[in-house]
Amino acid sequence: MSVTQDDVVKIAHLARLAIDETEMQGYADKLTQVMDMVEQMNAVDVEGVEMMSHPLNMSQRLREDEVTESNHRDDYQAVSPSVENGLFLVPKVIE
């Protein structure tokens, strides 16, 4: 698939990118290379290949789900200017 300079202009507009006219052909060439690589990858026969969640096929190390910090809410709220029922009170900012 060949990407033209007009395609680059459209893509740049959609992505809200400002591209200099002198660089258009370079972008078109690089995008064409990317699209060619995607076509090559799509042509590979992957029938019978098991899907993997990670390229190294490793299991995730898990740790115990345990509390490692104590609750400091009362300490934090002690220095707050306004607290009610365990909640910080702030001024209304939207009418």
Describe this structure in words.
The protein contains three helices and two strands, in the order αααββ. The protein is mostly helical. It has a domain at 5-43. The protein has a two-stranded antiparallel ribbon with strand order 1-2. A hairpin with a 2-residue loop joins strand 1 (83-84) and strand 2. The longest helix has 20 residues, at 24-43.
Topology:
Layout: H1 5-14, H2 24-43, H3 73-78, E1 83-84, E2 87-88
Antiparallel strand pairs: 1-2
Helix pairs in contact: 1-2
Descriptive key words:
3 helices; mainly alpha; flat; 38% helix; single chain; 95 residues; two-stranded antiparallel sheet
| Largest sheet: spatial strand order | 1-2
Taken in chain order, the helices and strands follow as HHHEE
Task: Round the mean pLDDT to the nearest integer and report it.
Answer: 90
Could you say which structural class the secondary elements and strand pairing correspond to? mainly alpha
Radius of gyration: 28 Å
Q: What share of the residues does DSSP label as strand, in percent?
A: under 5%
**Percentage of residues assigned to helices:** 25-40%
Largest sheet: 2 strands, antiparallel
| Straight-line distance between termini | 54 Å
The counted number of beta strands is 2
**Count of DSSP H/I helices:** 3
Shape: flat
Q: List low-pLDDT spans.
A: none
